[in-house]
């Protein structure tokens, strides 16, 4: 969240390269390929990540009017995760173990049986829970190549870079004192000097 | 050096930039000239973090009131700490933004923009983005001004000397 309303806390990235000619329909297809897919209790995946329309996190029907806002390409990156509280899992696993032992007459579970039983308990619990959902907005100014991603999280930022590059086949680099300087269009001499300068103390340490 | 190395080895510039803004803001009464007719006012707001270079354990987090004017903040500078995060109040053409800048990444957080006037959703989005970009552009122009001094072999030693003087003796006059 953030591009349309709410907190303005974001990280800027610079897109290296420009979209190809007549990119809009091509980009819609590319976005669809990495659209968010719902988690299912029947599948082993514990996490799902993908694009959603920025105005509604349940909407993956990507159309021009929902993705392109004049010079901006806007999307939400949705991340769902099954999150079963450990106490809940432990309690249900204990119950299931006791039932299994009573039913089979065995004294204890083997390693394989433990794993199978846990997988079955997790599957049943997933039917009774909703995955946690997180959506982070992205707004890419196609004219300037500046892209804002409404999160400061380092791990999520790296994952976002991967999803973006897989989707649009363009590299992005995060804002930093160095990349900001490059983006300002400093000449080669200035960039060379930038690479060689050292931090300087603001106090005379000899005093 | 590859890009990642260059990004890592120059992160200190963000700290120098914020400290430089503090220095200039105090001595120029918050007034900055961005271009010929483009002016910006910057004041440090109520949150300021100072750290020793590459030693996060030595961190001063000051909040409430006007920490940049506090004896603790100046003392932290005298101990060699540098600004790693600052909440800034930007004024431009009668409008005001408040934003916290992270020196290491230049990431912006908690930005408050001037009131958005548009009623329609799309128009509100464009106005919101315009206001964000206006603040960002002002900060980037200021960063350019800083780099022009920082990368200049003649200007920087003189500026550094003034900064050191300011750190030691707060009341100095900038040359005309």
Number of strands of chain A: 7
Q: Low-confidence spans of chain A: pLDDT under 50, at least 5 residues?
A: none
* Largest sheet composition of chain B: 6 strands, antiparallel
Distance between the amino and carboxyl termini of chain B: 40 Å
Rg of Cα set of chain B: 17 Å
What's the quaternary structure here?
heterodimer
Catalogue the unreliable spans of chain B: none
Largest interface here, residues on each chain?
A-B, 43 and 54 residues
Shape of chain B: globular
The overall pLDDT of chain B, averaged over residues, is 87
Question: What is the percentage of strand-forming residues of chain B?
Answer: 25-35%
Describe this entry's structure for a reader.
- The complex is a heterodimer of chains A (207) and B (176).
- In chain A, 40% of the residues lie in helices and 20% in strands.
- Chain A is of the alpha+beta class.
- In chain A, strands 1, 2, 3, 4, 5, 6 and 7 form a seven-stranded antiparallel β-sheet that branches.
- Chain A starts with 10 loop residues before the first strand and ends in an 11-residue tail after the last helix.
- With 176 residues, chain B is an alpha+beta fold.
- Chain B contains five helices and six strands.
- Chain B has helices at 3-9, 12-27, 71-78, 121-150, 155-168; strands at residues 31-33, 39-52, 55-63, 81-92, 95-102, 108-112.
- In chain B, strands 1, 2, 3, 4, 5 and 6 form a six-stranded antiparallel β-sheet that branches.
- In chain B, 33% of the residues are buried.
- At the A-B interface, helix 6 and helix 7 of A face helix 1, helix 2, strand 6, helix 4 and helix 5 of B.
């Amino acid at each position: 969240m953030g591009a349309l309303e709410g907190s303005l806390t974001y990280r800027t990235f610079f897109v290296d390269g420009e979209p190809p000619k007549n990119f809009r329909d091509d980009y819609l297809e590319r976005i669809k390929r990495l659209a968010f897919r719902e988690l299912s209790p029947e599948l082993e995946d514990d996490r799902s990540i993908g694009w959603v329309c920025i105005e509604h996190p349940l909407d993956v029907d990507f159309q021009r009017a929902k993705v392109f806002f004049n010079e901006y390409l806007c999307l939400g990156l949705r991340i769902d995760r099954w999150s079963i509280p450990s106490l809940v899992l432990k309690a249900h696993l204990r119950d299931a173990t006791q039932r299994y032992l009573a039913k089979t007459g065995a004294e204890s579970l083997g390693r394989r049986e433990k794993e199978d039983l846990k997988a079955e308990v997790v599957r049943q619990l997933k039917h009774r829970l909703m995955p946690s959902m997180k959506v982070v907005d992205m707004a890419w100014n196609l004219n300037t190549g500046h892209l804002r991603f409404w999160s400061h999280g380092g791990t999520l930022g790296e994952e976002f870079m991967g999803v973006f590059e897989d989707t649009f086949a363009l590299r992005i680099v995060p804002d930093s004192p160095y990349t900001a300087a490059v983006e300002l269009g400093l000449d080669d001499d200035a960039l060379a000097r930038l690479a060689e300068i050292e931090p300087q103390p603001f106090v005379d340490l000899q005093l | 050096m590859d890009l990642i190395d260059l990004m890592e080895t120059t992160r200190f510039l963000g700290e120098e930039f914020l400290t430089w803004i503090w220095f200039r803001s105090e001595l120029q009464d918050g007034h900055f000239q961005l271009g010929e007719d483009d002016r910006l006012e910057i004041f440090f707001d109520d949150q300021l973090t100072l750290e020793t270079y590459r030693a996060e354990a030595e961190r001063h987090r000051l909040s409430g009131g006007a920490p940049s004017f506090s004896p603790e903040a100046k003392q932290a500078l005298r101990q060699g700490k540098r600004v790693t995060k600052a909440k800034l109040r930007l004024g431009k053409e009668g409008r005001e933004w408040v934003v916290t800048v992270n020196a290491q990444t230049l990431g912006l957080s908690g930005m408050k923009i001037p009131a958005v006037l548009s009623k329609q959703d799309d128009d509100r989005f464009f106005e919101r983005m315009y206001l964000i970009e206006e603040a960002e552009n002002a900060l980037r122009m200021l960063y350019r001004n800083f780099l022009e001094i920082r990368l200049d072999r003649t200007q920087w030693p003189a500026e550094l000397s003034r900064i050191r003087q300011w750190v030691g003796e707060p009341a100095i006059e900038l040359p005309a």
